[in-house]
Amino acid sequence: MTRRPLSPPGQRPLQALTFDLDDTLWDNQGVMTLTEEGHYAWLDASLAAWLAERGEHALGRFAERQPIEAYQRRRRELAERHPLRRGDFTWIREQALCALLEEFGLPRAAAWMWALAAMEHFHHLRLRVSPYPEVEPMLEDLRRRYRLASITNGNLAFHRLELSRHFEVSIAAGEMHAPKPDPRCFLMTLAKLGTTPERAMHIGDSWQEDILPAVRLGMQAAWIAGDTPHGEAMPAGVHRLSHIRELPALLERLSHGKRSDG
């Protein structure tokens, strides 16, 4: 079906919508807690069973000698030492796990094997997101009128989700070493979509990482703010929404030249 982007009089029509993922299309807190704790517990239990099969009992339990707090601290240290990779969360996690496993007493080859296996379990758990019920039909409708893309700082294997079929372009900004608010991930997305900032809107929950960089590039932006306080008036081109379900109504108002209530 031919897309029919609309816009207020005097403004060029929107061609594209770019979306943040975590805490925009779904609530991410629960799944991240499950993933963080779950993959580390899996590593502890699976490694203990593997060592027991080999009759190796001297090393003890990994999570007792290297508690999850040590893992989190090591990740922070790596991000500080490697600022260009601070947003490449999979790389940071793999490096941290391998280092802790070596310190635990595994040879380097075995440490890497278990680090990669733990990260595979991480990605499996990370996919257990539950998009808001309005998201699937909303995207199905919007893709008929706009080109859609996703831009995320997270390390979710988004291409494995059925929801990803709605997006022509999906950018993992951390893996390209340009995590939001770096403008390069936005510019790359727009280039892949074949559009310009003034003909695109970005939708996200973070004022610093989503809204400000989009507006500075000349995009419109829909801030999924929930009940986040913000005493100042919205800058031109920024529309405040409490939930992603309000996006279609916003686009409808804008298509008829009406101002947003946000």
Layout of SSEs?
Layout (H helix, E strand, L loop, with lengths): L15 E4 L9 H25 L8 H4 L2 H14 L7 H16 L3 H19 L8 H8 L4 E6 L16 E4 L10 H11 L6 E5 L2 H11 L2 E5 L13 E4 L5 H9 L7
Parallel strand pairs: 1-2, 1-4, 2-3, 4-5, 5-6
Helix pairs in contact: 1-5, 3-4, 4-5
Structural write-up:
This protein is α/β, with parallel strands linked by helices. It contains nine helices and six strands. The protein has helices at residues 29-53, 62-65, 68-81, 89-104, 108-126, 135-142, 183-193, 207-217, 247-255; strands spanning 16-19, 147-152, 169-172, 200-204, 220-224, 238-241. Strands 3-2-1-4-5-6 form a six-stranded parallel β-sheet, with helices on one face. Helix 1 runs antiparallel to helix 5 (108-126), helix 3 crosses helix 4 and helix 4 crosses helix 5. It starts with 15 loop residues before the first strand and ends in a 7-residue tail after the last helix. The relative contact order is 0.16.
